Amino acid sequence: MKKNFASFAFGCRVNAAEKEEINRRLLSLGFNYSEDNPEIYLINTCAVTQKAERETRQFIYQIRKKYPKAKIVITGCAATAWIKKGLKIKGVDEMIDNKNKENIDKNFTDNKSIKTSGFQNKKILSYSQLKSDKFLSSGRLLIKIQEGCQRFCTYCIVPYLRGKPKSERIKNLVSKIKFYENDIKEVILTAINTEAYGLDTGEKFTDLIKAIINETKIPRVGLGSINPWSVNDDFFDFYKKVLPDKRLVNFFHIPLQSGSNKILKLMKRGYTREEFMEKLNFLSRINPLAFIGTDIIVGFLEEDDHDFEETFNFLRVSPIYNFHIFRFSKREGTAAFFMAKKLKEPAVEIKLKRARLLADLSKIKYHKFLSKHIGKIFPALFLQKRIKDYQKVLLDNQVQAFIKTPKNRLGQIKFVKIEKIKNNELIGKLS
User: Fold this and answer.
1) For 351-359, what is the mean pLDDT?
2) Which CA distances in Å does 328 have to 15, 50, 374, 424?
3) Where on the phi/psi map is residue 378: left (φ > 0), alpha (ψ -120 to 50), or beta?
4) Which among 15, 198, 219, 281 counts the fewest CB atoms within 10 Å?
């Protein structure tokens, strides 16, 4: 009888990609994905903030209460941190660190001869068997291309938990993608640090994208978060060349973290606000409808009103139209944790106020960006099922819209015309 398992991922898209890869491996070993009384529940955890760790603990408690007989196994960054500290988490049966995550499926089978590391599973599942993968079920493949980081920004715990950069070779990634190319419409490349892709293999990030475009039939190639150091002359030249082909998704999430040079230096980010703005403007000139998002940390050490004002004004005038806002959280083991003993940290209420101001600005800027789409025609990937004659889609810049359609078009790409904005959402019809 097949064992049932279920899974959940906190945090970034890399975590989501890892979770889905583990799901695929377990399915290939004969397990069954079901949230109806699973015997095993896998949780890929996040430790980027104290809030993320707290939410993970709360979720573990909820899962233990819901499935009292399930074996709860956790992995990921929070699990790695807890293992390093020698902590035991109530309700958890087993913790597996990031270093051993690749072989996590060996923990649930007696067949130790099965090769499971990387992407080398011999038994590959058909598309129809992968309904637990929410990305694949809508025609999208989420895939991790790189692990680890060498940057050690002062606030960040991730390099300590993910280790040194390690890249999956281009030929392996292309081979994996080609297997699903008849069933998916978009592949999304995720990494801990795109700048570090190929440092250990001698390959380049842009060469990977070129290979996917040239060697597969995937209509759309999307990028997860890309670090500022990856957005360089090589990337600009590449983007200008592939833009007419219309296969690279015109969405770029580039973490800024602060618009103050003083704070950027304290964070050890390795660039100035002026250098970052130059990259943004170059991208925007190449394609005015490129959707650019960013991450911002408010309330970092020594951030005063002037520093925040610089960040606010930078975002106000930049071609960034969506912000993910985080309140600074000291992580034990980071440089900032020790810096905080000497440097002033803004009060919680100040962090909350600054976060709210940026959230309001983000809404205003996003609405402004949406208005650029009205009356224009875009290729759109249809997501989810049709509800009341409308279906959610992703345009070729990852902006969501709702399109009126007479039938369900899940997983299809069709041209659509945007007609209006309603409740900060684009509304349109088939073109």
Assistant:
1) 99
2) 21, 9, 37, 28
3) beta
4) 281
Handedness of CA 324, 326, 331, 335 (dihedral sign): positive
**Beta-ladder partners of 390:** 387, 404
Q: How many CB atoms neighbour CB 131 within 10 A?
A: 11
Cα–Cα dist 306/260, whole Å: 9
Distance CA 212, CA 195 (A): 18
Query: Rounded to an integer, what is the distance from CA 324 to the centroid of its chain?
Result: 12
Neighbours of 57 (CB within 10 A): 16
Q: Which domains does the chain have, with CATH numbers?
A: 4-108 (3.40.50.2300), 132-371 (3.80.30.20), 377-430 (2.40.50.140)
Q: Starting from the edge strand earliest in sequence, which strands make up the sheet with 94-95, in order?
A: 32-33, 4-9, 40-45, 71-76, 94-95
Look at residue 28 in the predicted model and tell me its pLDDT: 85
pTM comes to 0.91
DSSP letter string over 209-226?
HHHHHHH---SEEEE-B-
CA atoms of 408 and 58, how far apart (whole Å): 37
Q: Residue 128 has what pLDDT?
A: 46
Question: Are the C-beta atoms of 162 and 193 separated by less than 8 Å?
Answer: no
- pLDDT band for position 191 (50/70/90)? very high
Give the three-class secondary structure for 359.
helix
The backbone torsions φ and ψ at residue 78, rounded to the nearest 5 degrees and listed phi first, read -65, -45
Q: How, if at all, do strands 425-430 and 390-395 pair? A: unpaired
